[in-house]
Amino acid sequence: MSLTFALAANGQPTYAVTYQQKPVIQPSRLGLTLAGGGGFDGPLVVTGSETKDVDETWQPVWGEVKNIRNHYQQLTVHLRQPAADGRRLDVVFRVFADGVGFRYEFPQQASLTYFVVRDERTEFNLPADHKAFWIPGDYDSNEYTYTTSRLSAVNTAGIEPIQLKAAPTTVQTPLMLKSDVGLYVNIHEAALVNYPAMMLNVNPKTFGLTSQLVPDATGNAAYLQAPEHTPWRTIVVADNAPAVLASKLILNLNEPSKIAETSWIKPQKFVGVWWEMHVNKATWNYADTTNIKLANTDWTKLKPNGHHGANTANVKRYIDFAAKHGLQSVLVEGWNVGWEDWANNWKEEVFDFVTPYPDFNVQELQAYAASKGVKMMMHHETSSSVTNYERRQDAALRFMKQHGYDAVKTGYVGRIIPRGEHHDGQWMVNHFNRTAENMARQQIMVDMHEAVRPTGLHRTYPNWLASEAARGNEFNAWSTGNPPEHETILPFTRLMGGPMDYTPGIFQIKLEGWNAARNQGKQVHTTLAKQLALYVTMYSPLQMAADLPEAYEQRPDAFQFIKDVPVDWDDTRILLAEPGDYLTTARQAKGKAEWYLGSITDEQARTQTVRLDFLPPGRRYEATIYADGPGASWDQNPMAYQIRKLKVTSKSSLTLKLAPGGGAAVSFKPVGKIKA
Amino acid sequence: MSLTFALAANGQPTYAVTYQQKPVIQPSRLGLTLAGGGGFDGPLVVTGSETKDVDETWQPVWGEVKNIRNHYQQLTVHLRQPAADGRRLDVVFRVFADGVGFRYEFPQQASLTYFVVRDERTEFNLPADHKAFWIPGDYDSNEYTYTTSRLSAVNTAGIEPIQLKAAPTTVQTPLMLKSDVGLYVNIHEAALVNYPAMMLNVNPKTFGLTSQLVPDATGNAAYLQAPEHTPWRTIVVADNAPAVLASKLILNLNEPSKIAETSWIKPQKFVGVWWEMHVNKATWNYADTTNIKLANTDWTKLKPNGHHGANTANVKRYIDFAAKHGLQSVLVEGWNVGWEDWANNWKEEVFDFVTPYPDFNVQELQAYAASKGVKMMMHHETSSSVTNYERRQDAALRFMKQHGYDAVKTGYVGRIIPRGEHHDGQWMVNHFNRTAENMARQQIMVDMHEAVRPTGLHRTYPNWLASEAARGNEFNAWSTGNPPEHETILPFTRLMGGPMDYTPGIFQIKLEGWNAARNQGKQVHTTLAKQLALYVTMYSPLQMAADLPEAYEQRPDAFQFIKDVPVDWDDTRILLAEPGDYLTTARQAKGKAEWYLGSITDEQARTQTVRLDFLPPGRRYEATIYADGPGASWDQNPMAYQIRKLKVTSKSSLTLKLAPGGGAAVSFKPVGKIKA
Question: Does A578 qualify as catalytic in the annotation?
Answer without folding.
Answer: no
